[in-house]
TrEMBL record:
Keyword Transcription: yes
Keyword terms: DNA-binding, Transcription, Transcription regulation
InterPro entries per record: CysB_PBP2, LysR_HTH_N, LysR_subst-bd, WH-like_DNA-bd_sf, WH_DNA-bd_sf
Native source species: Aliikangiella maris
CDD domains reported for this sequence: PBP2_CysB_like (cd08413)
Keyword Transcription regulation: yes
Record domain HTH lysR-type: where: 1-59
Pfam families (UniProt xref): HTH_1 (PF00126), LysR_substrate (PF03466)
Domain of life: Bacteria
SUPFAM superfamilies tied to this protein: Periplasmic binding protein-like II, Winged helix' DNA-binding domain
Family under the similarity heading: Belongs to the LysR transcriptional regulatory family.
Protein name: LysR substrate-binding domain-containing protein
Length: 331
C-alpha cells in the first residue's frame, strides 16, 4: 500500500466517484488512478467501491472504513509537514476559512488586518456557506477553520470552540409604526411581515420557537444568509428585519431604526471549529487569539485534549454561558 494510492482513493470520493474529475483535481491521469485503485483493492483483497458496470457509484461498507482511515493517514503525513514548517518558521501557503457573510464583513476585516500584518506571506482564502456545508468541508479537510453561529450539530471529528455571544437587532424604516414603541415584544413583531436569516437545516430558529411558545405565528416573508440583503428588503418596505447586532451601524444605516432584541430573543453564540485530526500551526493559534482574545493557546490545548465526561460537558455549558458579549476588541 502506498500513500499516493490513498490520495487517489480520497480524491475519487471527494469528486463524487468521478475518476476523470479526480485525476484533473490532483494533476494525474485517469488510467493511472484506475490502475492504482485496482492494485489497492487486489492488495487488500476487498472491494472498496460499488460499481455499475465500469462506473463507480458509491462505497461498500468496508470501503467507507477504508476511506476514513485513508483520510487520517494522509492527515498525519500532512501534520508531520506542518510540524516541520512550524519548527523552521515557514509561514507561507494557504489558510482557508469558511464563514458567514456577517462574520466575513462585520467581524473579520480588522482581525485579518492584524493577522496579515503578522503573516504577510500567508494567502488567506475566505469561503461562504451554511453550517452543514462547513461541516462537510471540515470533515474532508478542504478548509482549516469554520466560523459560524448556527446551532447545527457537527460531526464527532469536529472540535467546536464557543467564542462569544451576540444579540439580534430589529430593524425597520424611520416611519414604521414600531418606532412609536419603547420596547417591541414578540406580539408586536407578529403583526408585521418579517425578513430574517435562513432557517437552520434541522429544527426551528429561536424566533419561530419563541413565537410558537406564545401561541403566535410569525409571518416570515423572506429569508437570506446575507444581512445586507435583509436590510435592502427592509428599505424596500417588504417587512421588518431581524439581523445580528454587529451588522447594524446607526451612522451608516441612519435611514433605519434599530431596536435590540435581547429582551425577547435568546443570545446567539459564535463558534470556531476545526477537524480534531488537524495539527494546529502557530499562525492558527495566533488567529484564534486575535479573533477571541480570551482564548489562550494553553486553554485551547486543554479543551482539545481532555476527555469530555458528562460532568465536563456540563462544565462546558456553564463556560459557554459565561462567554463575553461580542465587542470590537480587535480594533
Amino acid at each position: 500500500m502506498k500513500l499516493h494510492q490513498l490520495k487517489y482513493l480520497v480524491a475519487i470520493v471527494d469528486n463524487n466517484f468521478n475518476i476523470t474529475a479526480a485525476a484533473e483535481k490532483i494533476y494525474t491521469s485517469q488510467p493511472g488512478i484506475s490502475k492504482q485503485l485496482k492494485l489497492l483493492e487486489d492488495e487488500l483483497d476487498l472491494k472498496i467501491f460499488e460499481r455499475s458496470g465500469k462506473q463507480l457509484i458509491g462505497l461498500t461498507a468496508l470501503g467507507e472504513d477504508v476511506v476514513k482511515h485513508a483520510r487520517r493517514s494522509l492527515q498525519e503525513v500532512e501534520n508531520i509537514k506542518r510540524l516541520a514548517q512550524d519548527k523552521n518558521k515557514i509561514e507561507t501557503g494557504s489558510f482557508s476559512i469558511a464563514t458567514t457573510q456577517t462574520q466575513a464583513k462585520y467581524v473579520l476585516p480588522e482581525v485579518f488586518k492584524r493577522f496579515h500584518a503578522r503573516y504577510p506571506s500567508l494567502q488567506i482564502d475566505i469561503q461562504h456557506g451554511s453550517a452543514e456545508q462547513m461541516n462537510d468541508q471540515l470533515e474532508r479537510k478542504q478548509i482549516d477553520f469554520a466560523i459560524a453561529s448556527d446551532n447545527a450539530a457537527l460531526s464527532p471529528d469536529i472540535i467546536k470552540i464557543p467564542c462569544y455571544h451576540w444579540d439580534r437587532i430589529i430593524i425597520f424604516p424611520q416611519d414604521h409604526p414600531l418606532g412609536d414603541l419603547t420596547n417591541p415584544t414578540l406580539e408586536d413583531l407578529a403583526e408585521y411581515p418579517i425578513i430574517t436569516y435562513k432557517e437552520p437545516a434541522v429544527g426551528e430558529s429561536s424566533l419561530v420557537k419563541g413565537m410558537k411558545a406564545k401561541g403566535l405565528s410569525p409571518n416570515i416573508v423572506f429569508t437570506a444568509r446575507d444581512a445586507d440583503v435583509i436590510k435592502t428588503y427592509v428599505r424596500n418596505g417588504l417587512g421588518i428585519g431581524i439581523i445580528a447586532s454587529m451588522a447594524f451601524n446607526p451612522k451608516i444605516d441612519n435611514d433605519l431604526i434599530g431596536f435590540s432584541a435581547k429582551s425577547i430573543l435568546p443570545r446567539c453564540t459564535t463558534w470556531i471549529a476545526f477537524n480534531k485530526n488537524l495539527l494546529l500551526r502557530g499562525y492558527m493559534y495566533c488567529f484564534i487569539e486575535l479573533f477571541a482574545p480570551h482564548i489562550t493557546k494553553e486553554w485551547l490545548n486543554g479543551y482539545i485534549n481532555k476527555e469530555m465526561s458528562a460532568e465536563q460537558n456540563n462544565a462546558e455549558k456553564n463556560n459557554e454561558n459565561s462567554l463575553p458579549m461580542h465587542r470590537m476588541w480587535h480594533i
